[in-house]
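request received
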Amino acid sequence: MPAVSKGDGMRGLAVFISDIRNCKSKEAEIKRINKELANIRSKFKGDKALDGYSKKKYVCKLLFIFLLGHDIDFGHMEAVNLLSSNKYTEKQIGYLFISVLVNSNSELIRLINNAIKNDLSSRNPTFMCLALHCIANVGSREMAEAFASEIPRILVAGDTMDSVKQSAALCLLRLYKTSPDLVLMGEWTSRVVHLLNDQHMGVVTAAISLITCLSQKNPDEFKTCVSLAVSRLSRIVSSASTDLQDYTYYFVPAPWLSCKLLRLLQCYPPPEDGAVKGRLVECLETILNKAQEPPKSKKVQHSNAKNAILFEAISLIIHYDSEPNLLVRACNQLGQFLQHRETNLRYLALESMCTLASSEFSHEAVKTHIETVINALKTERDVSVRQRAADLLYAMCDRSNAKQIVAEMLSYLETADYSIREEMVLKVAILAEKYAVDYSWYVDTILNLIRIAGDYVSEEVWYRVIQIVINRDDVQGYAAKTVFEALQAPACHENMVKVGGYILGEFGNLIAGDPRSSPLVQFNLLHSKFHLCSVPTRALLLSAYIKFINLFPETKPTIQEVLRCDSQIRNSDVELQQRAVEYLKLSSIASTDVLATVLEEMPPFPERESSILAKLKKKKGPGAVSVTELEDNKREGGELNGSSDRGPDIAAMAASNASTPSPSADLLGIRSAAPVGAAPTSAGSLLVDVFSEAGPAAPSLAVNDDGFLRDLEQPTEASDALLVEGSGDSDSAPPSEDPAAPLSEADELLNKFVCKNNGVLFENQLLQIGIKSEYRQNLGRMYLFYGNKTSVQFASFSTTVTCPGELQSQLNVQTKPVEPIVEGGAQIQQVLNIECLTDFSDAPLLNIKFRYGGALQNLTLKLPVTINKFFQPTEMLSHDFFQRWKQLSQPQQEAQKIFKANHSMDTEVLKAKLLGLGMALLDNVDPNPENYVCAGVIQTKGQQVGCLLRLEPNAQAQMYRLTLRCSKDSVSRRLCELLAQQF
Amino acid sequence: MTMQFMLLFSRQGKLRLQKWYVPLSDKEKKKITRELVQTVLARKPKMCSFLEWRDLKIVYKRYASLYFCCAIEDQDNELITLEIIHRYVELLDKYFGSVCELDIIFNFEKAYFILDEFLLGGEAQETSKKNVLKAIEQADLLQENLDFQMRLFSGVMVPNMASESSGLFQN
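response:
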């Protein structure tokens, strides 16, 4: 093996590096670097041409300086020059510099691409590899444009060296990830798939990564890879530990390739071909058997490699979720690992068991390990392992063990690490609610939660307990008693005061019979906490007080006195002052009846998904998120962690809504339409949705002022009938030659056609426009019928279709001009050919101009071409549906809306609409038969976008929740917008 | 199975090698590096080699004075990544002959070249030790400019911290 000197030693570089290392201070280092930079700059600018060696040395020094963390703004040109050197080491350093430092400098990219092109065509495998490595390292769009069509050819050519094939495969993978639209496998597909059969293990190892990525995006085109992968895997699994020579790693044959093969299979459902499936099951069994064999080596590398394959096999078994026998065996194997002495294995076993817990076949088997897992939560020394144990407890929880698990989690919370407390709190809150048999247990649990970890109890948690108490009258008395007792503690958390204030304000009367908790005792207890609390909590307490005046007239003088004192009525905080003033006035002038109406008990909250669950989902960020999104998530994460500070703001918002009647303050949050911007501006930034993910909903605190508000509300939706007439009217149309702006109702007209293809698009006194359309794949044809309703001829009749803005590049609409004359009572027809190039949001505009009795008519409509028209329905089974649903789990792939029903919620009507949408309506998929799920693929010229839809009606609340998951996030959003108008 | 990036840093927190397989701005890279170095260095020796960090999984292992730290995606296999690290250390060891941190400091470009032969675009390209080293050797044989060849460590006075010159495999 080469000694260190075998490299291309550069003495100057070594000297420079030691100089830097000799520097005693950061300043000295910077000084030395600046000196070097000046030197290199002068060398590069000097008259004397530098030889290749010097250039290489200086470029290498610049690289070193950059890697130390300093900016480098020159030397790129010299590095590019090195690329065309015929000395390998110079070329190599040039490429390294480019790989590390290049940005999309257009001038340079052209030169670099030129050099790469030369090397690719050099037929020198070493040079070709260097060039491919550079493309793979930089992976820019410009490079994809230049080389995406060339590399597949290199990859499959018969005379390409193996090492070049390996680089080409991974290079192509990188380009595919950067610019999938530029990498078109088409004719190469089958030859690429067959690389799985290649003689050279290295080629297979590299190619399979490419095939896996392509299969994820185009499963159908690549599905032949399944049987090839199974037979390759089978050969490896059954080979002796020495058969594969250098591809055997610590007595494990080809561990990397095995893992990649098992990973590739996870892109597909279980093989349909019985023989292939049998062979695969055999492989999986062999892998499970091997785990029981004595190790062939004591080295950790041996066991790691072996277990890496085992865990990947278990992932595949879980992915199939169809072989009960294998699932239970997997679970038993993981059970053994739970007590393994290697921390790594314990960690992974906990992690993997989490997914097993969600399979119906292995849920019970997982549950048998509960004691071990609880023990891990208590005794593991590494917080990451404890976190996994907590996750697993959460996943294995059901009605049978909920009390035990919740109790263990609560007791763990007392000593839990700060880093995981908030998540633990959310989990306890969710489990307590989900598996509550008696709600007094639930109330106890949540109050314990606040007591133990008050700082980590986010507003969702304490709002939720209030929501539940309000909605369940069997627990209200118990809740009042329990909070009253909890408030007795000399120091209790502010969140406890909030819950206490709210609940006593609503239900204090239920415990007022007991002299130990008489109205005045209750009031004094609450008020004793008042001065220690933040402004938002005080605001909440003031509202509780006014509720007290209604519940217990005997407290009125005491409370009025409190409200009247300077510290309230002249409080420097405007919110507190306003409340004090208004409540004082209200209690003085309103009759008992009015007071009772205004301050009536809160009506039940509409049932909906727990906002806590939503929060946990958000926090855990399902699935992988690429690094580029990390920044956003980080911010989000920070916000979540800081949410204990945010809680009061919410209350402030709620408070401000409660005392500042505003037409849009939709207290119950039922109408998702209530716009955030319409809230009082001072509170706008505080307006955070606390009860659901949909429209803003502020809790109305103790004051039931929605009674006031309902009357103040403006009707937000005018009826449809009003809209059809209007500005299209001949008299009011502006006589202009420019296309008129789209009708104000154009959007409503558009919405009418989302779920249907034929009908009357527009009608006024003069003109009726009918529409008929049909769509296939990414193409559509639309027939427009213009009918003259008058007896007078339309002259200079002309229509134009335009695609505004970016729609131009997304949709291609072609048509021929129409006859310029439309006789009275006659109808003319126009055909539009439509091609969908990529997904889009806007609608094309149709402008119509004609003269009627000398007056120019000019109107513009939106053509009902919406993205869903290009759907191909996809039938799939429940299993496949949920598998795909899981695959589309990145947060931005999902769009969700909760909204009020605008139309009939009748099943047949809904079904007809969903079918009209163009997706396949899937039966027997959703466990809840009330729900609807649909699947479809949007066909555009450039790509196919898979879409899954779930619509959950709640007939009682007259609401829907609509969820869309699409492989493209813009599509999810657009479809969600469109559909929310339909139901 | 894509690796997002690989970082090598010393116990003192000095970055020795960085390889990014996803496009990120320099600013983001620096931020991630700072944060991760801090997180990993704060962990105790017997803790597990994996941690959740942001939405990624971090797999790390210490060899003598150097930490090798990889970021992989949620679905990826931790154990096989741990062995990716080990195989890379083996490759360095074989090439430099009992590799130590100093070899990587002074021959950083070689460390990059070896990594490129082994992993490309974040995926294992060639897992055979022989084949990777053969590729690097061939490259070394191609060089003509032998005038300046020297043993780096005999020609230059190198101030070492003892830890930097201890073989990665000796601990």
